[in-house]
Design a protein that fits this description.
With 75 residues, this protein is α+β, with helices and mostly antiparallel strands. It has helices at 16-26, 41-45; strands at residues 10-13, 35-37, 53-59, 64-72. It has a 4-stranded mixed sheet, with no helix packed on it.
Length: 75
């Protein structure tokens, strides 16, 4: 049986330079990424601040994906 954090996907707070590299890779500004609220439990756990970028690592049986969320005060 799986409980707690085993059910959650990995969330990673990116450094400023990593965030800038991701924005450059996708050719967009950081604030154009999908949003995540500073009050989101995972953002709180990472001590994320508005303007930060969070990488969300998801896996399925065939591959893995990274989604990005821009931290804001409100979504």
């Amino acid at each position: 049986m799986v409980f707690g954090e085993d059910l959650l996907v990995k969330h990673e707070l990116l450094s400023e330079s990593e965030a800038k590299a991701v924005a450059k890779k996708f050719g967009t500004a950081l604030d154009k990424f999908p949003k995540i609220s500073i009050s989101d439990p995972q953002a709180k756990k990472l001590n994320a601040q508005p303007g930060d970028l969070i990488a969300i690592h998801r896996e399925d049986p065939n591959s893995s994906y990274i989604y990005y969320r821009y931290v804001t005060k409100e979504v």
